[in-house]
Amino acid sequence: MTVRVLVVDDSATMRGVITAILRADPEIEVVAGAADPHEARQLIKQLSPDVITLDIEMPNMDGLEFLDKIMRLRPTPVIMVSTLTQAGADVNLRALEIGAFDCVAKPSSYNPDSFESLAEKVKAAAGSRRRIAPMRRTTPALAMPSAGYTPDGRVIAIGSSTGGVEALIAILTKFPANCPPTIISQHMPPTFTKSFAARLNKLCAPEVNEAADGDKLRPGHVYLAPGDAHLELSGHLAPYLHLSHAERVNGHRPSVDVMFQSVLRTVGPRAIGVILTGLGRDGAVGLLELRHAGAETIGQDEASCVVYGMPRAAYELGAVGRQLPLERIAERILQTTNAQRREPVS
To answer: What pLDDT shows up at residue 219?
Structure first.
């Protein structure tokens, strides 16, 4: 089945670039291009595209305002396309909270291959159509009171990609201020992760930061991999973080597999590995190795995933010890790692 796409960007050059990339895929048809939201609105009514690519900075109406209208009035999968700036990162995070499927940075000298996965994301977005819902405001969940929780010394490692912003917010807002040390590799463009970490830090009881090389693991802290570095765990007696700019693994840097495998080398079965929504297979092999070493492994279930790609690959490989809906993952982690628990966790 062909995916029909509307390309919205005020730059004729950029519309041409996006169109050429998408038309190179035989499963995608670009049905039209629009220079601003007013033109796009008419084309959406006429053509009913399966997916929309949407620039953020445009005349007459900015992309966020237009995305808001799309999600409320005619919900359609939207991929945001923006410049790779700090301000753009903040806006893209807001777009994901409003309901955008994913965000892609425009190519630059710093990130020339940013459109490499655009066609794949467009097709995944079309497959997620039934999950598109009107705009939801993100509100913090009630975290477990710190007084009823004492971490038992284990380390939490979480991997995620497309749909991960919403999933990570859902999990981390339930963590108490003294949660287990938690490291995260989320596939995101460079600069986006700093803004995302700041956003999480405002929403969550634990302290959330973009990881820095040499950071020591501490309870009550969550460390998010920078968008252009592998996040690894080192040091057996006093674990600390190491950032690497080595080659991409599974097409990604940060790679979830790299993170999981470093956790295996450092703390082994004293870890809990979690794989969340995302495209591709990154993390499946590393999660399997963690499970074989005796660590608990959790995968997000298909029904609650935006894209059941990474969790599916891990599940089919036998890497997932327990498959759970998103809303139960934080509870499972905290029950399992609570040194004060009186009943065994089944």
So the answer is: 95
Note if 187 is an active site residue: yes
* Residue 152 placed within a domain: yes
Instruction: Verify whether residue 25 is a known catalytic residue.
Output: no
Whether 228 is catalytic is: no
The 3-state secondary structure of the chain reads: CCEEEEEECCCHHHHHHHHHHHHCCCCEEEEEEECCHHHHHHHHHHHCCCEEEEECCCCCCCHHHHHHHHHHHCCCCEEEEECCCHHHHHHHHHHHHHCCCEEEECCCCCCCCCCCCHHHHHHHHHHCHHHCCCCCCCCCCCCCCHHHCCECCCEEEEEECCCHHHHHHHHHCCCCCCCCCEEEEECCCCCHHHHHHHHHHHHCCCEEEECCCCCECCCCEEEECCCCCEEEEECCCCCEEEEECCCCECCECCCHHHHHHHHHHHCHHHEEEEECCECCCCCHHHHHHHHHCCCEEEEECHHHCCCECHHHHHHHHCCCCEEECHHHHHHHHHHHHECCCCCCCC
Q: What is the CATH number of the domain that holds 210?
A: 3.40.50.180
One of 161, 185, 195, 304 is an active-site residue; which one?
A: 161
**Residue 151 contacts by C-beta under 8 Å, 6 or more apart in sequence?**
178, 179, 180, 181, 219, 337, 338, 339
Catalytic one of 187, 221, 230, 252? 187
Residue segments in the chain with a per-residue pLDDT below the cut of 50: 130, 133-138
Domain interval for residue 291: 146-337
Residue 252 in any domain: the answer is yes
Q: Are residues 27 and 123 in the same domain?
A: yes
Q: What is the CATH number of the domain that holds 77?
A: 3.40.50.2300
Whether residues 189 and 288 fall in one domain: yes
**Closest to 222 measured CA to CA, from 117, 330, 70:** 330
Q: Total structural domains in the chain?
A: 2
297 located within any domain: yes
